[in-house]
Design goal:
6 helices; elongated; 81% helix; mainly alpha
């Protein structure tokens, strides 16, 4: 399960690099716009617990165990919140990407 989450995390982390190669004329300023767009998706489309777990795991580099202790929930529940957050992010990027990356 951990490898799968890390793999998905790498996909999200490298999304802006992917966009850079997919769109002609992308420059550093545009790349920052994509990062901002991804942040908008995270801030606006995830539930509070999904957002908290996602940020703690991938921005604060906390372990699943640390997050579960903070929230007082099971490790499996933290995994579930992160997995659902990843699904939501990926679906919004696939469907509404251009709307968020302006």
């Amino acid at each position: 399960m951990r490898k799968k989450l890390l793999s998905i995390s790498n996909e999200i982390d490298n999304y802006t690099s992917f966009i850079k190669y997919q769109r002609k004329g992308t420059n550093l300023g545009r790349l920052n716009e994509y990062k901002d767009g991804l942040r908008k998706i995270i801030d606006n489309e995830l539930t509070e617990k999904q957002r908290f777990c996602f940020y703690q795991r991938y921005y604060e580099n906390q372990s699943i165990k640390e997050i579960s202790n903070i929230l007082g929930i099971a490790d499996a529940t933290v995994y579930k919140h992160i997995r659902n957050a990843m699904k939501t992010i990926k679906s919004f990027v696939a469907i509404y990407g251009d709307e968020y990356f302006k």
